[in-house]
């Protein structure tokens, strides 16, 4: 595919490299020898991490925070609860609802999983200078903020359109 401008060429390369990043992370995870992998798959780790960051949370609020549908989050919550990594408690504000929190076993697992992921990322950037690591981090932080802002803009636009269509 040919492009006319340097900006398009850069955007095209970014698309290719972002796809390569996703594929590479999954491939690396799949290639780990037995006993060297993570106990939790990435999505389950993300759910556990989000609950640990936010504290006790309703499943619906967690789904919204993670930009996932409630059924997907519920499947993760069920498996993590069955494994003893999460605990349910009654919502003190609405006794009909429940909150999910990380159990002590979940906190221990999360600490070990987090350390393993830090070690893995450290190995991947071990040939970067400290300045390169910091520049890479700043770029990722900015990119993730742009993603979040764009998602909000789309959600607001869809909400506005749905409101107009219902009127």
Automatic annotation (TrEMBL):
May I ask which residue range the UniProt record assigns to the signal sequence? none
- InterPro entries reported for this sequence: HTH_MarR-typ, MarR/SlyA-like, WH-like_DNA-bd_sf, WH_DNA-bd_sf
SUPFAM superfamilies per the record?
Winged helix' DNA-binding domain
What Pfam families does the database record attribute to this sequence? MarR (PF01047)
Cite the HTH marR-type domain residue spans from the record.
11-145
Q: What is this protein called?
A: HTH marR-type domain-containing protein
Q: Which organism is it from?
A: Fodinicola feengrottensis
